[in-house]
Structure formats: structure tokens, C-alpha cells
Amino acid sequence: MSFEEELREGLEQSQAVIERTEERLRGGAEVRAEIKELKRLSGDIEVTHLLLEERFRLREQRVEELGAKAVERQRGMARDYRETLEEYFALIKSLSPDGDVSEIVLGALKDILDRMLREKKPLVFGSLPYKHLNYPARQPDSEPSITPAYKGGDKEVSPEDLKSTPEAPISEEIAAFAESLNWNPVLIYEYVKNNIETEWYWGCMKGAEETLRQGSGNDCDQATVLVALLRASGFPTRYVRGTIEFFAGRDAPIGKVKNLTGIEEPVKIAEFFQKAGIPYKPVIKGGKIANFRIEHIWVESRIPYANYRGAIIDEHGKTWLGLDTSIKVLGYEYNNPMDIFSYPELVSGTLANIRDKYLSAVQTETPLEYLRSHINTELGTGSPQLEYNDFLKTRTLIPEVMNILPASMQFEEINITHEYTEIPEELIHKVRFKATDANETELLDVELKTYELSNKPVAISYEPETVEDQEIINSYGALDNTPAYLIRLRPVLKVEGERVAVGKEGLPMGGEYELTIELQGVGYGSADSEKITNTMIVGNLTAIGIVAQKAVQPETRNPEPATRNAEQLLYEEAINYIERWNKAEEKLASLMHLTITRPLPTVVSIGGVIDVTYLLDTPHDFEWKGVYVDADMRAVETVAGYGLRDEGERQKIFMQLSSLQGSILENRIFEDDFEVEGISTAKLFQLATRNSQPATEMLTIDRTNIESILPTVNIADNIKEDIRNAVNQNLTVTMPEADITYEDWNGIGYIKENPETGEAGYMLSGMIAGGMTAVTPQEWVNQYLRKTLKKPYSEKSNEDPLAAARIIKIPVTDRQTATVATPVKEPLAVFVMDSKGKPVEGAEVTFRVLAGGGILAVRLRIGQPRGPGV
Fold first, then answer.
1. 158-335+396-425 topology per CATH
2. What is the 3-state secondary structure (H, E, C) of 111-154?
3. Using CB atoms within 10 A of its CB, is residue 699 exposed (0-12), middle (13-18) or buried (19+)?
4. How many Cβ atoms from other residues are within 10 Å of residue 288's Cβ?
């Protein structure tokens, strides 16, 4: 424990004694024992105070060489600290041992301690991280019609028709892929049509490169792939936007749209388009929905067509052609699964209470694995001819290979309203990052396109505010060794390692500020904007995983952790978390026979669990205690596929089990990938009920009982406020009645849930609405991970101690005044590097005294003669 922590602990104990003293005085009881305890604590505090004073004195001597800012910060901190402690000691000394104390003195002591001790509030969030967006219905654009080139409009080719654009770049990746398809428009069209899975959402979320990597996208994102590949191959290409009507399918006239969406009931198809944010309009015939019109984006390209319909054998007969790949021409082949809700014994015996069973004890299986095991067990008793897989709804795309380009579109163009050479801003999903300090002063504010961020390393890092701050850090050898109050750091938003935005000013290391991430959808203005606000700690590296639909791990990922730095390790864990949740969510939707859509990206943050010791509202000590993961935002919409029974119940169970899966993954990723025990809200609930003697009581709080239960629960005021806000939104809160201890972690967690829909937030006290490592870092099995994540700004070290080539002394440990035979106040420190300037780990350093200096102090009494040698 550091001196600062010892001092804080002593002051906190004094604070508790003072509160007890006030209570006894109000009750007319004597307080001699309390006064005695306060004086004893004051003696302990004074010992620590003297040690800190000496440390501050030594630091002041050192910082005189580091510039005016360092001197000002050190002296200002030490002056305020000294004056406050002296005031505290004086008041304690004034207390009479016989217990005669006034409320004025106690009040003054309380005021001092309130100034000295910063209240640590567990951070919570006021919204549901796993939720529905509930977009309102929107009709297709009704602007006047235009005539695109492929319909006889402006056929003149311009440089804009061949240019590289941000959403459809002619990059090295795109050019290489176009070359692999022989620059051939037929092969390009058929590849995208038969290999890029269609997803349903509105607007450009991924762009061409990300759509290719994921192998999926909506109409707009598939259009960007066609534009990029065709332009890279030399074919002028444009976007077209308008309203289309589906052609009739096998079940005319609405069979096509049923097949494409996997939804049988027309009214549910309308609900699906609404939830996906796609502008639509039902076509009514005979009082029934006979078809749908939707707003859609496709492309047109100028291709040699007259002789061989796009198969490039000659360059004759170039003409503009309309092309679309998202409306799959042959559609999908579906299996014929059993409906699990047709088996009452599975619904009542398994699905209805599977979450409660799972949370009743610590499980080795994930929720989805646990559900599968229970279903197979139930079937083995009542329906042995069936198994879990018999209930899974699956579909397979029917490929269409014609070796020519189509002569017409696979839908009816009702109203064509726009022709673009690049996707306009109004159709592009964006993400805004805004950071503000405690006074709401803006630190940074930047807006980026979602396709620039999806599946890419995004991080909030930090850099010194000034050159002088950098020199202070250098004098201490590294940021990790530098006293927090001596330096100021600017937050930096980085994407793929590049600085995208830098804070306008810095904050003290260990200080706090607010970071708001705003997901800006398309088409609804502020209605489709979702904001996530987190409290950040200055100096704490945080990776942010932003994924538009499918998670894709880096192609160059090295399986050995030792090859990656802290930023890479954290980013890959964020993507891994999203990928595992995505797969579970899709499996669960398959079991429940639901069609899902994700109208906005998923956001997950992962970073260090930091314990900051404050004195006088100034951060002093900055200690890394592990890693956390937080599912900041995940929106999903569900619609039942085939006119199924119990639609509301199956959607609710889907949301309950999927959110449970997301919570349990928040501890599993650390246990699986870092080999460190983790804690999450779901695991906390399991621990609260496992073999407890007596079992920990679970509290359920809603509007009917909040006034009687909430005041009795021993939790922080801001958590109570969050619970009250949740209940006021008609949510139900479930929580253990007391803190839970697991390994080296202690805290509380609770579930906020919409009882009608199953939307939920799994909240964990202390830091996040998520999960974190539960074991002290010194006990981690993988010490490389510990070292890398604990010191994220330090360069990767050379582990060969014989590689030492250069040694540099740490200036702040040099030139100390010491007494013979007494250790110096600060251990002498040096920095050892190899020939490339990398730090060397484990190098043996020998300190020898080659020459010495000193001061000989002689005291002479007046009239006493000097002896020989003086």
C-alpha cells in the first residue's frame, strides 16, 4: 500500500469515527472512547504525513530542474496538502480527552475530511445496453422522378463515374479482388450476387471493403462493392435510388418478399421493414397486403453488351445497364424444422424458467449450450426421435450462374428519384465522439463514418499536454513511474494506430472526464441517434470495438499474445466478444424461428480497471488492477418467421437468453483468452445463490415496492438513483440483498429489465455495466499479459538480459542527500536499452562508489580551542 493509500485509509477511518461520535452525542451518550480513537488514528496519520512530507520535499528538489510548470504543480499541491493536514491535526489536538466536544469542532473536522477525501462513486449507465430501437414507420421518398442513364437519361461519361470515393475506394484491396475476377463485369456481378449475403437495414453502414470482408451487406453496401469493383475494372458506374416493387414469386403475388425475408405473414413483413428502418409501403389489393414497395439503392454501369451481354470478348456496343445484387433472383431454400413452441413440455419445462435455472449455480456451459443440453434431455424423455437440431430454422441461398449480365432488373422500378456518383452524406451511418471535462468544457468533438471504424482498431489513448509534460515523464523513466499530479495528458482518438482527434487541452493523470459516443443512423434525424456516455480516467488506455453487423478478426492476427501490444490485445478481445455474441444470437434466432435485424452498429469498450487515490481532489496514485469489458450498445429487432404461435413470448425469451449470453461472455472472454477468473453480473447472480448458507436473498424492485425496499439496501446513492430511474421507466430491477465477494473482487450487480419485452441491462458496480477480471494482477498465470496491459504506453521490452547496450540514469533518483549508513529516500533507478533502443528486461545492474563528496559539519563552542586537524 502506498503512503497516499495509507493516509486515505486513516482519514476514512477518522471520518467513520466522527460520524459515530455525532450520533452518540445526539443520543446523549458519552464519547470518550471515540475521542481516544480519533487521537490514536491522528497519531498514525501523522506518521504517514511525515513520510509524505519528506517525499514531497525530495520531489520539489528534483522538479526544479524540470521547468516552471513542474515546480508550480509540486509546490501548489504540497502547500494545499500541508495547510489542510495541519488544520486537521490542530482540531484533533483541541479535543478534550474527557469527551467534552462541541458540534462545531466535529463539523469543522467533517468539512476538512470531505475536502481531503474524494467520494468514489460506482459508475452506472441509465439506459439498456441490449434493446429494441422501435423506429417509426416511414414511407419511400416521394420526390419527382428522374431518368437514369440506363433508362435513357444522361449517358455522357464523366471522370466522376470512374473516380475512387470514400465508400467505394479503388484501393489495393479492391483492385486485387477485381483482378482476381479478371476485371470482368459478369464475374464481378455474379460473385457479389452469389457470395454476398443480404442483410436488411437502411443506408450505407459498411462501404465496399468492409462488405467484402464480412461477405454480407444491404442493398446500399452491396452497391458500393459493385461500384468499386466495376470502376477498378474501368467501367463507368453510378448509384441509382428509388422505390421498387417486388416481382411475384412462387406464391404470387407476395411470395418473393416472403422468401427473401423468411417471414410468412404480410403484416409481419411490414413490421420487419419498419424495425429495420427501411422506408416501405404495402400494396393493398382485395383488402389484403398483396406486395410491398420499398426504397432501394442499386447501380448502373456502362458495359460492352450488344454482342455478348457483358462477357468481355469485344468492346463493341457499350451501353448503360441497371444492376442489383441484394434482391437474390432465385431466393433461398428453407428447411422444414419443428417449432419448439409446439411442444408444451419444452415451453413450460425448459424455456419458461431456463434463465432462472442457469443463474441458480455457477455453470461450465454458456447459456446457449445449457439450453441445448436441457432440450435434448427433455426430448430424450418425451420425444426420443427428436433432438435440438430438429428445431433450427436454416436457409441456403440458391446461386444463379448465367455467365451473362441480365437484360432487365429483378424488380419493378416504381419511382426513380436520384442518381449519384457517390453515396451522399444523408445515407451514411456515422459515429460522433465527444469528450468534455467536469465543467462541460469540450476537449474533443469529431464525427467519423461508420465504415471507417467497423472492425478497425479504435482507441482512446493519451499524450502529454506540453513538451514540458513529456520532459517530466522522461525524467521519471516512463509514464507509469510519474506522480499523477505532476503531469497533464490530452485524450487522443486513434483509428488503426493513427491520431484522428486530439484533446484541445489536458487533464491531470487519473482525473475524470465524460466520453459520449453517438451512433447516427439514417433517415430519422435525432430519432435514430443513440448516445452512450462513459466516465473515462485520464491515462487509462481504452479500446472501442465498433462492428457494423458481423465481427471480423484481423487477417494478420498472430495467435501468440507476446507479438501484440496492449492496444492490439484489447481491440482483439472486443471483436472476439462481439463475434461470440453474434453467433449465439443467430443460433438462438434459428431456434426461435425469428428473423433479426441490427439497424445500428454494436459498440463494446474494453480497458483497464484503475484505482485512483485522491488527496484534496487531486489524483496522486494511479494503480492498474485488471481489465474490464462493457457492452455499451447493442440493438436488435426480431420478427417471427412463419405465423407462429406465442410470438411475443418467443421474442421475450430470445431477448432474455441473448442478454444473459452477452453478460456471461463478459467474464468468459477473460477466462478463456487471458486465463484469469472474471466476474460479470450473470456470474455474480450465480455466486449469490450457489450453496449459500443461508442463501443470499434476491430482491425484485418495481413500482409497487420501491419506496419500501430501496431505502433499506446498502448501496451508493448514485446506484440508488439509477435503480429509481429504471423503475420510473417501468423496468424491473433484480439484485442480491448484499455485496458479493469472489476471488479478489467485491461488489454488487443488478439486472434492469423490461418485463414485457425482455430488453435488459446487466449492471455491475464499481466500474461498468459489464464484466471484469476478478483476480489481483500479481496472481495472473500469463505474466506477459499482465505486464503489457499494466503498462500500455511502455515499449515492448527485449527479454534477453544480455542484449543490454546502453544504460541511462533516471534523473529524479539522482543527486539525493542521504545520511551515512541510511538508505536513500528514493531507490536509485536506471533505464537499460538494447542497440535498437528497446528496454531490456532482467538486466543485472551493479552500482559502485567510485568517488564521494560530502559536507563535514563542525560545531565549536565559544572559548573552546580548536583541536588538531580542524
1. C8orf32 fold (3.10.620)
2. HHHHHHCCCCCCCCCCCCCEECCCCCCCCCCCCCCCCCHHHCCC
3. middle
4. 11
Q: How far apart are the first and last CA of the chain?
A: 47
CA distance 727 to 695: 26
Instruction: Count how many residues are written for the chain.
Output: 870
Block residue for cell numbers 509524505: 52
pTM of the model: 0.88
Q: Is 635 helix (H, G, I), strand (E, B) or coil?
A: strand
Place of cell 461488489: 747
**Phi/psi-derived region of residue 758, left when phi > 0, alpha when psi is between -120 and 50, beta in every other case:** left
pLDDT number for residue 862? 40
- The partner residues of 623 in beta bridges, in order of sequence, read 611
- Dmax (CA) of the chain: 128
> In 3-state terms, what secondary structure has residue 189?
helix
- Cα distances (angstroms) measured from residue 110 to each of 3, 17, 529, 559: 22, 10, 44, 55
Strands 237-246 and 411-420 come out as antiparallel
Strand partners, 446: 433
- Dihedral of CA atoms 849, 855, 861, 862 in degrees, nearest 10, equals 150
- DSSP code of residue 626: E
Q: Retrieve residue 800's grid coordinates.
A: 534477453
DSSP state of 336: -
Q: Would you state the pLDDT for residue 306?
A: 65
Nearest to 487 by CA among 503, 517, 510: 510
In a 13 Å sphere around the CA of 546, the CA atoms on its Cβ side amount to 30
Instruction: Please tell me the predicted confidence (pLDDT) of residue 861.
Output: 42
Amino acid identity for residue 257 in this structure:
V
CB 484, CB 506: distance < 8 Å: no
In which element (H, E) is residue 19 found? Answer: helix 3-26
Task: Look at residue 249 in the predicted model and tell me its pLDDT.
Answer: 60
Task: Pull the grid cell for residue 147.
Answer: 431518368
Q: Which residue has the cell 419498419?
A: 274
Residue holding cell 455522357? Answer: 156
Alpha helical stretches, state H, 492-640: 566-592
Query: pLDDT under 50 in the chain at which residues?
Result: 125-127, 767-768, 856-870
Cell of residue 627, nine digits: 481489465
Q: Which amino acid is at 84?
A: T
For residue 517, give the H/E element and its range. strand 512-520
- Inter-helix orientation angle 3-26/103-116, to 10°: 150
Distances (CA, A) of 780 to 610, 671, 744, 785, 789: 17, 11, 12, 8, 12
pLDDT the model gives residue 652:
93
- What is the identity of the amino acid at 419? E
Measured between alpha carbons, how far is 103 from 274 in angstroms, rounded to an integer? 64
Task: Report d(CA 16, CA 33) in Å as an integer.
Answer: 14
Site of grid cell 502547500: 79
What pLDDT is recorded for position 346? 87
Q: Where are the beta strands (DSSP E) in 569-724?
A: 594-597, 602-615, 618-635, 637-640, 678-680, 698-701
* CA 574 to each of CA 53, 488, 493, 597: distance values in angstroms, whole numbers, following the listed order: 43, 28, 17, 21
CA distances from 340 to 333, 356, 376, 386, 694 (A): 21, 19, 12, 11, 37
Q: Is the dihedral of CA 212, 216, 217, 222 positive or negative?
A: positive
Nearest CA among 35, 42, 6 for reference residue 18:
35
- Ranges of each domain in the chain: 3-116, 158-335+396-425, 341-389, 429-696+738-779, 795-870
Angle between helices 647-669 and 681-689 (to 10 degrees): 90
680-711, pLDDT tens digit by residue? 999 999 999 875 556 678 999 999 999 999 99
**621 secondary structure, DSSP code:** E
- The string of DSSP letters for 207-218 reads HHHHHHHHTEE-
| Bond preceding residue 694 cis, omega within 30 of 0 | yes
Which run of H or of E encompasses 492?
strand 488-495
Neighbouring-strand partners of residue 283: 291
The pLDDT tens digits for 629-664 are 999 999 999 999 875 667 888 899 999 999 999 999
